[in-house]
């Protein structure tokens, strides 16, 4: 079982590497340098070492550090590609919540408000309090944001509420979480779960907010291509 999981992870890594090399031709240069520079440093220190054991340790250390740097660079390039693919896509915020949200935050990838034009509103809870993120045309989604804000204020009146908008007239998709994480902390970590549970138990459910004519089972969040 463990062997199958390991093979699966290696296969995923290979697929990601192939995609990156295909989409970003010069990525091989940065990936190669990220691995070779630490390895070269390890070899240099190994040559300068006075005993065999130290030399072996330096070489192994250079290889491990090179692999780590390789994975970090690969992850950064992959993330940049993901943001490029999500920009302007319907459900981009949903994909962010599903794949990029920190564990210290609480949220659902399903919107808490949505209209027939596919403008959506999401509610997240973290140390700064409640964050309402809207996606779509700002003027068109504004009534939904106000409704979600009033609902949250009614249920958790002592918790700060922030709003962010993602779209052509707002934040870019790669700026969304950066802006959110910069918000000043206002509640304790243990209170995050309490606030989230209270909102989820009392607030209107995402399904009840779906406009007529939209099948919630057919909603798909945008995925990187």
Question: What report would you give on this structure?
Answer:
With 225 residues, the protein is α+β, with helices and mostly antiparallel strands. It folds into 2 domains: 2-86, no CATH class; 92-217, no CATH class. The chain is built from 7 helices and 5 strands; from the N terminus they run H-H-H-H-E-E-E-E-H-E-H-H. It has helices at 2-23, 27-48, 52-86, 92-100, 138-155, 176-181, 189-202; strands at residues 106-107, 113-114, 120-126, 129-135, 161-166. Strands 1, 2, 3, 4 and 5 form a 5-stranded mixed sheet that branches. A hairpin with a 5-residue loop joins strand 2 and strand 3. Helix 1 (2-23) crosses helix 3 (52-86) and helix 2 runs antiparallel to helix 3 (52-86). The longest helix has 35 residues, at 52-86. The two termini are 29 Å apart.
Topology of this structure?
Elements: H1 2-23, H2 27-48, H3 52-86, H4 92-100, E1 106-107, E2 113-114, E3 120-126, E4 129-135, H5 138-155, E5 161-166, H6 176-181, H7 189-202
Parallel strand pairs: 4-5
Antiparallel strand pairs: 1-3, 2-3, 3-4
Helix pairs in contact: 1-3, 2-3
Radius of gyration: 23 Å
Mean pLDDT reading? 84
User: What would the principal axes of the Cα set say about the shape?
Assistant: elongated
First and last CA, distance: 29 Å
> What portion of residues is helical?
55-70%
Oligomeric grouping of the chains: single chain
Number of domains: 2
Structural class per helix/strand content? alpha+beta
Report low-confidence residues grouped into runs of 5 or more: 215-225
If helices are DSSP runs of H or I spanning 4 or more residues, what is the number of helices?
A: 7
How large a portion of the residues is in β-strands, by DSSP E? 5-15%
Annotation, overall tally of beta strands: 5
* Biggest sheet layout: 5 strands, mixed
Q: Helix-strand pattern, N to C?
A: HHHHEEEEHEHH
